[in-house]
Amino acid sequence: MYAQLREKANELARILWREHTVYRERGGGVVIRGEHVRRWISLAPTGGKDQALLRAGRLLDGGTTAPARTEVVVDLTTPVADLAAICRRMLAEVAAAADVPDGGPSRAGRPKAAGKGKREKWEKRARTPRASSRHTGLGSWVVLLMVCTVVAAWAYTLFGGPGY
Length: 164
Fold this sequence. Notes:
This protein is an alpha+beta fold. Helix content is 41%, strand content 18%. It contains 4 helices and 5 strands, in the order H-E-E-E-E-E-H-H-H.
């Protein structure tokens, strides 16, 4: 199965991109990387005869791969031109998903002031001089007092207290 996947991957890579790298995955699949377009495609065995799981995703900074954005099961007996058309459609979906900001379209109408969150509050708190002592609240003082009481009681019983 690996030989069949490798052969199809090489044919697809030549059709899709001039610059590409084809290599084997741990799971027995084949990955095609297009560094210049910051995208990847993988063909993995599905257990069915002449079928493969086709996945597409993008490359992150540093060359690591992001999780697959789209995936589809394809028949490996279909012509390579048809598989290339499926790959192009999937790559277009990946590119469209990469263009949408992380918040998605629902953030488009929100003003920037509404986006202030915990991080900004934390940064503001960290700039105040009391930020380093904020962990010694009332609860911490009570625990500290209880520990001191236990140590004093232990010392009292150890050394016998008055009258010995």
